[in-house]
Amino acid sequence: MTEYSAPTRRPTIKEVARLAGVSHQTVSRYLKSRQGLRPATLERIDVAVEELGYRPNLMARSMRTRRTGRLAVVMPVTTYNQARLLSGALAAAHEAGRVVEVVSVEGSAATLTERVLELAGSGQVDGVLSLTPMAAGNGHNLPSGAAVVVTPEFDDAMRSIGELTDATPVTELIERLANLGHRRFLHVAGDQAFASARARKVAYLEAIDRFGLESVGVSDGDWSGESGVEAILQLDADRLPTAVIAANDVVASGVVRGAYERGLDVPGDLSVTGWDDNELCRFLPPSLTTVRINLEGVGRNAALRLIKAVGGPELEPWSGPVAEVIWRESTAPPRQSTDSSPVGSR
Hints:
alpha/beta; elongated
C-alpha cells in the first residue's frame, strides 16, 4: 500500500512579516517594489523570505488580478544562443516572482514573430520577451493586454548588434601591450558576417595606425580554434609578431596551440588576448587575457523592461560597462623590446 504524504503548506505573507518584524503591508510593498524601503528593512525581509522559502501564490494572484504571473522568452534555435544572457533574464524574472517559459523557434524572423504573437494572444502569459527582432509590419497586430518587448542587442541569428559590437576594448588591449614594449601585432579575425567581428577588425587597424605600430596582417578566421592555429603556423619566421589580438577565446586558444607547435613561449615570445571570458580561460596555462561582456546584465535589463511593461515590481537594474578587459598571464612585456616608452608620450 502506497503511503500518501500531504503537501507541505505554503508560508504566508503574514508569516514572512512576523519573522521579519514588520507589517504584512510592508511585505506587500516589498513584493511590488524594493524602492522606498530602508536597507535594514529590506535585509530583514530578504532573510525571512529565504528562511521560509516564501514564493508568491501565482494562482491566487491570477484570480485577483487576472494575470498569470507567467512570462515567455522567445529565441531562435541557433548555435549562438547565449546561456549567460538567459541566466540574467531568468534571475530577474524569478526575483519578481514570475514563472518563465523559454521557447526556441526554428525558422525565419517571420516564423519567430508568428510564435511571439501566438504566445502573446494565448492568455497563458502576461508578456513575451523576444531576444531577436520581429518581422517588419507586425506591430499593429500585437494582441491587447499582453506586453511584448524586443531586445535591441541581437539580430535574427543571435549575432551581436548595437552596443554589444562596441570594439573599444581592442584599443585598450593594444595600447597596454604597446606600453609594455610590443611593436609588432597580428589580428586573427572572426567571421566577417558578424558585425562584432567587423568592428574588432576595424578597431585593430585604427589602433595600429593611431599608435604608430606595425601589423604583420589580419588573418581571416571563423571563430574556430583551427583558424587560430593556422594563422600562427602560416607566419613568416622572419616577421613574427610579439602580440596577437584574437577575435574570441576559442581563436586565442588556437593561437596558443599554434605557438606551442612552433616552439614559441606564451607570453615570453608571444602575448595573446581573447574575447568573451570563457570560464575555461582562467585555468589555461597561461591563463588568458580577455574581454568580458556582461551578458547577465544585458539579459537582466531586458527582462526588467518586460516586468515593468506587465506591471511587475520595480527591481534594481544592472548598471556598469558592458565590456571589461580582464588582464591575465598570457600578456607580458616581450623578451626583446627596442622601445618601452609609453605610446602616448611619442
